[in-house]
Amino acid sequence: MRWRTLLASMLGLLMTLPLAWLFYIAMFGQGVNEPRAQGKVPVPMLSPEERRSLLTYGHDCKTDGDCEPPLRCFFSTHTMSHYCSDSRCVTDMQCQEGFTCRTQTTTSGDPIRVCSLVGMRKEGEICMKHSPANDYACEQGLLCQGRCGRPCRLDDPASCPEGYFCHDGAEDEPSCLPTCEGRTCAEGQHCVTLDGTGSEGRHASICARVYGQDCQQNPCPQGQFCMLQTAPQPVDAVWMQCTLGCGAGAPPCPEGTVCHQYRCQKPCAPEDPSSCEPGFTCHRKTDKEPWRCVPFPRASSQTSP
């Protein structure tokens, strides 16, 4: 059943990202479930002279084997390409204004320090690591683990504000993630579990209104998986649907559904508002796509696929 959980997580992310980045993670997976880099020594930052002495510096690559040591092959979300590089920073001092020094991983999982965009996402809001646009990046001083959070100490619960717990970072230092454990949610909301667990086995969770089928409370029929979508904003709403995967060797979709973005979806009629459940609207981005029900705020978002 683990593959269904992974597929559901990936599909939820696919619905929120720009198309170029969406295509890359669908094909290669990097940036979705990146290998843990903690405990490894980062790729060194070289001097300009040392970089010029290496023939493969800045050249295209597929694996670290295509690069001269100590260079490594990594994917840049800004150029949308793989190339041989060293670490580009050690601290924020080596980054231009509007960027911060963060840890990324190479194709083999080694940590490499790069300058990442500082964005506008606030604490508790959805984010994307090493985002190619500041729309998806956290504010200065916050780290991204699916949600923006301040750095914290695993041995000190007080290092996170109320309603948050300290989560061990896969690349950077630990940061605070939201939790509604032990809290009473507002009327009309439920405590919804998000993907990922903390160092103590705790799940990140938020109080949110659920649109669609609450398949955490009422499991999907056998053979289907529960897809949780936490974007677009606001932070106190989620969208859930029971669905089937499609494409890439999967069985064809059942009659009455269409395959789009690797999942079977119910088609809708834009002239009939009742063809979608509350919280969803009938939408397509181009005339080559099928009309389908999507979370309502996304239909008017210019940054959504």
Largest sheet: 4 strands, mixed
Backbone structural class: mainly beta
Question: Segments where pLDDT lies below 50 for 5+ residues?
Answer: 1-36, 196-200, 299-305
Write the H/E string, N to C. HHHEEEEEEEEEEEEEEEE
The helicity comes to under 10%
Q: Quote the beta fraction.
A: 25-35%
Strands of the widest sheet, in order across it, are 9-10-12-11
How many β-strand stretches?
16
Gyration radius from CA atoms, angstroms: 21 Å
Average predicted local confidence, pLDDT: 82
Tell me the overall shape: globular
In total, how many domains does the architecture comprise?
1
- The count of helical stretches stands at 3
Cα distance, first to last residue?
Answer: 28 Å
